[in-house]
Amino acid sequence: MSQEKNPTKNDAYNAIQKQIQEGELAPGDWLVERDLCDQFGLSRTPMREVLWHLEKDGLLIQSPGRGFRVRELNLQEIMEIFQAREAVEGMAAFLVSHLHDQAFFDVISELRKELESLKDDELQETGPQIGARMHSHIISHANNSILKGFYTKLKNMYSLTVNITRRSREIEMVSRDSHLAIMKAIEDRNGELAEKLMREHLRETCRDITKIFYPNLI
Amino acid sequence: MSQEKNPTKNDAYNAIQKQIQEGELAPGDWLVERDLCDQFGLSRTPMREVLWHLEKDGLLIQSPGRGFRVRELNLQEIMEIFQAREAVEGMAAFLVSHLHDQAFFDVISELRKELESLKDDELQETGPQIGARMHSHIISHANNSILKGFYTKLKNMYSLTVNITRRSREIEMVSRDSHLAIMKAIEDRNGELAEKLMREHLRETCRDITKIFYPNLI
DNA sequence: CTGGCTCATTGTGTATACAACTTAAGTCAA
DNA sequence: TTGACTTAAGTTGTATACACAATGAGCCAG
Predict the structure, then answer these.
(1) Closest to B191 measured CA to CA, from B96, B87, B109
(2) pLDDT by residue (tens digit) across A59-68?
(3) Which of A95, B19, B124, B140 is the S-S candidate for A142 at Cβ 3.0 to 4.6 Å?
(4) CA gap A166, A164 in Å, rounded
(5) pTM here?
(6) A12 close to A47: Cβ distance less than 8 angstroms
(7) Measuring from the CA of residue A47 to each C1', which nucleotide is nearest?
(8) Residue B67 in 3-state DSSP?
(9) In Å, what is the separation between the CA of B96 and the C1' of D29?
(10) Do B145 and B49 belong together in one domain?
(11) What is the pLDDT of residue B1?
C-alpha cells in the first residue's frame, strides 16, 4: 500500500491505521466491511483489498468466516516482536556502521548531541522523539528494503501495545543512555559494538514493558 | 494462507507456488486472472485473494493497472535476502542454543552425524537436503512465529533464484563444513558462536551465488 | 522508411446481487 | 430453571456484469 494512484484506498488504509494507533479502534474490535464501505465511499472489493494490506502489515487479523478484527497481543507475542526487532535492528546498526556516507553520520552526530544536551524537564517529551528518529534513521540507511519492510511491520505491531504502555520517566532515562551509546558506536564505525548495544537496548526495553504488564513477574 | 477450510483456494495457492518454484512460471511472467479462474474453477474475487497472499509471501508483484507477475530479483535484492537471512537465522541459532528441550538437540545431533558420515558420492544429493532440514529445524524451534514468518518469505524469495543457480559441488563441500560447525556449536549450547557461524555461513553462500551470477565480479 | 495517431482488443478495477455461514435470541420440553 | 433445538437477522464468501485503463496493430502523413 504505497504507490497507488486512487486516493480513496490510501485514505481508507491510513485512516484505519491511524484509528488503531490512536486507540480509537482497540485490539480485538471487529471491523464490519459494510460500515467501512459507507464510511469511505468504496465498494466491498477494494475495501477488502485495503483490509488485506492492513493484515499483511500486522495490524489486523482475518478470521475465516468472521471477518477482520484488530490484532491482539499477549506477552509471548510482545517478546517475539522484541526478539525480531533485535535481529532486524541489530543487523541494521551493524550495516550502517560500515557506510561511506558522511551525511548519514552527520545526522547521527546531531541526534546524539541533541539528546545529550536535553534538560531534565525536556527529557520525557523530547527524548522518545529523538529515539524514534534514531531508530528510523538507522533502518532507512541500511540499504535493505527487506529489513525495512520487516521493521515497518514490527513497528506497527508494537504500536498496538503503546496505548496501554505509558512508559515511566525512569525507563526513558535508561533509553537515553542506551541511545547515546549506540550512536557513539556508530560514529566510531564500530559495527559489532553498535549491534551488541542495539540488541541490549531492545532486550532492556522489552523487560521494562514486560514489567508494566506483569509487575509481579521476574 | 494456511488454515482455510475451502480446498480450492489452498489448491490454487499451492499450485501456483509450485509452478513458480519449479520454474514452470518464470520470474517476470504475467499471471492473467481470468485464465487462473478457469484453471482452478474459482471466480475473480477469491482468485485475487490468493494472488494477494502470494504477493505477501514474496512470490508475486502487483503492478497497479497491469496485474500480477512473478517476482524478479536483481543482484542487489539477492544480497538483501541474504543479509535478512543472516539477521533472522542468526538470531534463531542463538535462541535455540539456550533451549531446555533435549529432543531438539537430539535431532541436531542426528543430523550432524548423518552429514558427517556421508560418502563423497552421496554428498551432492543428500548434503543440501540435510542442510535444508537443519535450517528448517532451527527456525521451527526458536519459538518465535514472527521470525518464522520472515524466514518463510525469505525462503520463498530465495527459491526464485534456485532455478538459475545450479550450485557446484565445491560450494556444497564448503556448506557441509559450515553446517557441521553450526550444529556443533548448538550442541555445545554456545549461542554466540552458533549465531556467528550461521551468519558467516550465509555470507559465504551469498558470495558463492553472487559469483555464479557475475563470475567476473570480485 | 519512420514517427505518431486512432481504434480495437484485452485485462484489470469496481459495483452489486446472491449464496452460505455464523451468531444469538426465542421457544419448547424435560 | 435449564438444556437443546429452531429460526431469523446479520455478515462474510462468491459470482458476475459493467466501466475504465493499458497495450498493440494498423494506418496515414511527413
Answers:
(1) B96
(2) 999 998 899 9
(3) A95
(4) 6
(5) 0.91
(6) yes
(7) C14
(8) strand
(9) 74
(10) no
(11) 40
DSSP-assigned beta bridge partners for residue A62: A68
Locate the chain B residue with the closest alpha carbon to A4.
Answer: B64
Residue A131 CB coordination number (10 Å): 20
Q: Which domain holds residue B46?
A: 7-70
| Position B133, amino acid | R
Residue B167: inside a domain: yes
Q: Is A147 on the interface with B (CB under 8 A)?
A: yes
Chain B closest-CA separation from residue A150 CA (Å): 8
Chain D, protein-covered positions (CB within 7 A): 11-17, 21-23
- B218 at interface of A, judged by CB pairs closer than 8 A: no
- Report strand pairing: A67-70 vs A60-63: antiparallel
Whether chain B has a CB inside 8 Å of the CB on A161: the answer is no
CB A151 within 8 A of CB B88: no
CB-nearest to B91 from A4, A83, A146 is A83
Q: Residue A41: CB partners within 8 Å, gap ≥ 6?
A: A8
Which candidate in B146, B195, B199, B202 is best for mutational testing of the A interface (most A CBs within 10 A)?
A: B146
User: CATH number, domain at B37?
Assistant: 1.10.10.10
Q: Which of residues 32-61 of A have CB within 7 Å of strand C? A: 42-46, 49
Task: Give the number of domains in chain A.
Answer: 2
Cα-based distances in Å from A76 to A81, A83, A203, B134, B144: 9, 11, 14, 25, 9
State whether residue A49 sits within 8 Å of chain B by CB. yes
* Chosen domain end from B70, B100, B117: B70
Nearest amino-acid residue to C12, taking CA and C1': B65
Q: Of B70, B88, B115, which closes a domain?
A: B70
> CA-CA distance, B46 to A45, in Å (whole number)?
10
Q: Are residues A174 and A125 in the same domain?
A: yes
Using the structure, give the distance in angstroms from the CA atom of A7 to the C1' atom of C15, rounded to a whole number: 18
Average pLDDT, chain B: 89
Cα separation, A83 vs A76, whole angstroms: 11
For residue A176, the surrounding DSSP H or E stretch is helix A169-187
CA distance A185 to chain B (A): 19
The pLDDT mean for chain A works out to 89
The one-letter amino acid code at B166 reads R
